[in-house]
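Give me the fold.
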Amino acid sequence: METKKAIFEILGQLTDPEIPVLTLTDLGVLRDVALLDNGQVEVQITPTYTGCPAMDTIAVNIREILHENGYQDVVVRTVLSPAWTTDWLSEEGKQKLKAYGIAPPVGSADKNALLGRAPSVQCPQCDSLNTRLISQFGSTACKALYRCEDCLEPFDYFKCH
């Protein structure tokens, strides 16, 4: 168990390539670590959405940091079920998003997005709720683009799903 805990601590240092203020732990994509009988380390990760381009970089970074820490036989497996949800973001991660200028998800994943209802999103710059959805897609597919009607600043919103 100590080795598994040590591996989680090592991996907890890695950040998301698209949002470098978030660790893999903050983001909730690091699912599990298994120490196999043959000495292999298996790391399970779940993408924030199917086809997320950052997953290849995350897998490379996982193998690299574990190799640097003496774990030579490392396999990274992508686990799609259950699907990742913004509910897996840590509270600390949500605060880091806001400080970085990205509005964290509001509430938990629900069907409003499917019905075309935009959530009431707080501006990460001035904290105003007087914001407007500009585009369902922001700088990446997991974010939407909003604009604050008070400070007039555009900002990304990390969409619930």
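Strands lie at 30-35, 41-45, 74-78, 102-103, 131-135, 143-148, 154-158.
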